[in-house]
Specification:
The chain is of the alpha+beta class. It has one domain: Nucleoside Triphosphate Pyrophosphohydrolase, CATH 3.90.79.10. Helix content is 20%, strand content 37%. The radius of gyration is 16 Å and the shape is globular.
């Protein structure tokens, strides 16, 4: 994985599928950390379950992350800040690998996914206002194309397609699943 990022391989951008529509303006810039946990039993991915009362994406499964702030020097700074605030990940445990293509959501967010390796042990401290739970599905499961499903859903009167990856009793879908598909394309694209 480190070698792919160092080689400068570029994955194609992924956008939530939708019929042609006018662009929403302005887009909300955000960044997420895609934290790959280096467990002795195999790599996992740390995901959060957002609390049900949040204004944006309530109850959904997501990566630690959020809106870019003026004080953030880069999307990487946003991802690190948000990961520390939401789940208590220490920057000293994080090895940044690189960016995946920006992900444009139908809800008006332009998200920069930052892939990183995280060294355990994790001493997580959840922000209980934003994060209801965390869990770690195996990275192997998430990168296996057999587990990448396409679904449709009506949103604001328009039928839209999205990615989903059900795992155990969790439903990973939308932007989070789309960014995982992007990670798959990045890691397994022909060079």
């Amino acid at each position: 994985m480190r070698r792919r990022f160092r080689a400068g391989i570029v994955a194609p951008p992924i956008r939530e599928a939708a019929p042609a529509e006018p662009a929403r303006s302005p887009l909300v810039h955000a960044a997420v950390l895609v934290p790959i946990i280096l467990r002795a039993s195999g790599a996992t991915l740390l995901l959060t379950q957002r609390t049900a009362h949040l204004r944006d994406h309530a109850g959904q499964i997501s990566f630690p992350g959020g809106r870019c702030e003026a004080s953030d020097a880069s999307p990487e700074a946003t991802a690190l800040r948000e990961a520390a605030e939401e789940v208590g990940l220490a920057a000293t445990q994080i090895e940044m690998l690189g960016r995946l293509p920006e992900y444009h959501t139908v809800t008006g967010f332009l998200i920069t996914p930052i892939v990183a390796l995280v060294t355990p042990p994790l001493n997580l401290k959840l922000d209980d206002f934003e994060v209801a739970d965390v869990f770690e599905p195996p990275l192997e499961f998430l990168l296996d194309q057999k587990n990448h499903q396409r679904h449709q859903r009506e949103f604001q009167g328009v039928t839209r397609e999205y990615w989903a990856m059900p795992w155990q009793d969790r439903y990973i879908w939308g932007a989070t699943a789309g960014m995982l598909v992007s990670l798959h394309h990045f890691l397994f694209a022909e060079t």
